[in-house]
């Protein structure tokens, strides 16, 4: 475990690559979500895996090139894959995404976040911020959507997450996730230049 892992009394702040390294592994997630427009709630669960990718991975390079960015500026790549279900729909729904953080040269704990869904068929550019409390905030914003997620570790194998999404048509959704690690995957040997 990184010496920069959030603990009481720790004054060190991790960077985005260390956060993703700490997130590597197999997870079980329980979700409580609330449709703020219709004032309805639902619960769900999922199994997912977080895999750290080196910045030389072809998926990372392809995603950078799609957005006309030099792949050497990528800090790493992260593949998240899994399946989830809701209380009313027990069928599992598989999906995957790839995240590529690119640091802001003037603010080392902030930067762009390239986000591709389902093998880079659809991708967007968002941003990330690593706070002094070691919580990571991921934001995607465009003319039709504002989505924000905040993730932090309560302990080494317990991660918490909140999300809020608002669409231009007025639909709003908020959710809280409790994520428990089921197994650890060793990060690749080289993630930084």
TrEMBL record:
Q: Which species is listed as the source?
A: Stenomitos frigidus AS-A4
The family assignment reads:
Belongs to the CpcS/CpeS biliprotein lyase family.
Q: What is this protein called?
A: Chromophore lyase CpcS/CpeS
Can you provide one Gene Ontology molecular function annotated for this UniProt record? lyase activity
The record's gene field reads cpcS
Q: What is its EC number?
A: 4.-.-.-
HAMAP family per record: Chrphore_lyase_CpxS
Enzyme class, broadest EC rank: lyase
Provide the alphabetized UniProt keywords. Answer: Lyase
Record function comment: Covalently attaches a chromophore to Cys residue(s) of phycobiliproteins.
* Organism superkingdom: Bacteria
């Amino acid at each position: 475990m990184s010496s920069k892992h959030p603990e009481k009394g720790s004054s060190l702040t991790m960077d985005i690559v260390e956060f993703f390294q700490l997130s590597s592994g197999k997870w079980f997630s329980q979700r409580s979500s609330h449709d703020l427009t219709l004032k309805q709630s639902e619960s769900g669960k999922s199994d997912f895996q977080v895999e750290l990718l080196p910045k030389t991975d072809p998926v990372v390079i392809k995603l950078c090139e799609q957005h006309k960015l030099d792949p050497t500026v990528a800090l790493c790549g992260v593949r998240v894959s899994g399946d989830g279900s809701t209380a009313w729909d027990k069928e599992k729904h598989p999906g995957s995404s790839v995240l590529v953080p690119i640091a802001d040269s003037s603010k080392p704990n902030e930067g762009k976040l390239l986000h591709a869904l389902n093998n880079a068929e659809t991708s967007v550019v968002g941003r990330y911020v690593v706070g002094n409390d070691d919580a990571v905030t991921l934001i995607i914003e465009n003319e039709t959507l504002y989505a924000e997620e905040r993730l932090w570790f309560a302990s080494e194998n317990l991660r918490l997450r909140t999300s809020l999404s608002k669409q231009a048509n007025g639909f709003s959704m908020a959710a809280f996730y409790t994520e428990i690690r089921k197994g650890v995957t060793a990060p690749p040997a080289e993630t930084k230049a």
